[in-house]
Design goal:
Length: about 350
């Protein structure tokens, strides 16, 4: 039996019951794929359900305010996904009259959609014979076929893409692509897979050669930058606070935060008092470290060391924000967690 057929047989017996597999609607398939980028299925499922309930069609999403989209996305991270999602919904609505493009070559032109996502949409919704290539697929194909090319090198993707395309030519592309992704997520996992129960092990290169834990080959390491964020939770005489919107490029673009002082290392109480007194001369009355233990927030290329400082000021903010109003803004999850724990006592 051929590899593709074996994989599909495994899938039909072991597939996960996921709502976006019950539809051919390209909007819902696209939405699920964007949510699941850098996100586990169990974490992404509630977001998918909230988005489809609030925005049943791509036209509904296009009409929404960006602030509402970002608020619904809060907690998923990689917020550029949400901004691109909203922008593409507008493009499809305005340029294509709410009809999602139906071919890989057209889909990949849309903002925020790369090779993998375009292949997923084209094959799942329209049965186009194009293979998907993501981390799971790299792992399964490299192990089964014995491919030792370094997957951190861009040119290697072409090797895997051509192989994936070949494998879907004589089977249903939607079925095969979902099968190989589930197989990588459930059976051919990154570390210590149970090859004794795998129906592909008898013809798997890695299993026969004892190289399961050596494949796929990936040599490039991500350089991680350390950053130190000091958030000033300002409080005026009425108990109100203020927030600011992050603008420009970088993490958390367009999300909200408390006023920020970024430093090169942790600050002592004396150091933060000096900085705050310089920032709010004659207004500053009291400062307290309200951080619950050490907060280290890890991103793909950055490690953030975060402190929250409650600063009381002898003034009244002209546009102060109440505790209830804070909940209406879209914050990075680390700040949102602080807000919910600090203000809901």
């Amino acid at each position: 039996m051929m590899f593709s057929e074996k994989l599909i047989n495994w899938y039909l017996q072991n597939k996960r019951d996921l709502p976006w597999r019950e539809t051919r609607d390209p909007y819902r398939i696209w939405l699920s794929e964007i949510i699941l980028q850098q996100t586990r299925v169990n974490q992404g499922m509630p977001y998918y359900e909230r988005f489809t309930e609030r925005f049943p069609t791509i036209g509904d999403l296009a009409k929404a305010e960006e602030s509402e989209v970002m608020k619904l996305w809060q907690g998923l991270g990689y917020y550029s996904r949400a901004r691109n999602l909203h922008a593409t919904a507008k493009t499809v609505t305005q340029t294509h009259k709410e009809i999602f493009p139906q071919s890989y070559d057209e889909i990949i032109k849309l903002k925020g959609i790369g090779q993998y996502t375009a292949a997923a949409i084209a094959s799942f919704a329209f049965e186009e014979k194009v293979g998907v290539v993501d981390g799971n697929v790299f792992r399964v194909l490299s192990r089964y076929f014995g491919i030792y090319d370094d997957i951190s090198v861009p040119a290697t993707r072409k090797i895997f893409q051509e192989l994936a395309n070949d494998l879907v030519q004589n089977v249903s592309p939607s079925l095969f692509n979902q099968a190989i992704m589930d197989f990588g997520a459930l059976q051919c996992v990154p570390k210590n897979p149970d090859c004794s129960i795998c129906n592909l092990s008898d013809s798997c290169h890695a299993f026969r050669t004892g190289t399961v834990n050596e494949l796929p080959v990936k040599t490039k390491k991500i350089k991680v930058t350390d950053r130190f964020f000091n958030y000033l939770v300002l409080e005026d005489l009425n108990g109100n606070t203020i927030v600011e919107q992050r603008i420009g490029k970088g993490i958390w673009q367009n999300l909200y935060q408390f006023p920020l002082i970024e430093t090169e290392e942790y600050l002592s109480m004396d150091e933060i008092i000096l900085l705050v007194s310089q920032k709010f001369p004659s207004l500053f009355s009291e400062i307290t470290d309200v951080t619950k233990g050490e907060i280290v927030h890890k991103l793909s290329h950055q490690r953030l060391y975060i402190k929250f400082w409650k600063v009381k000021l002898n003034t009244v903010f002209e546009r102060g924000i109440t505790q209830e109003q804070l909940k209406e803004y879209a914050f990075p999850i680390v700040i949102w967690n602080f807000i919910t724990s600090h203000y809901e006592k």
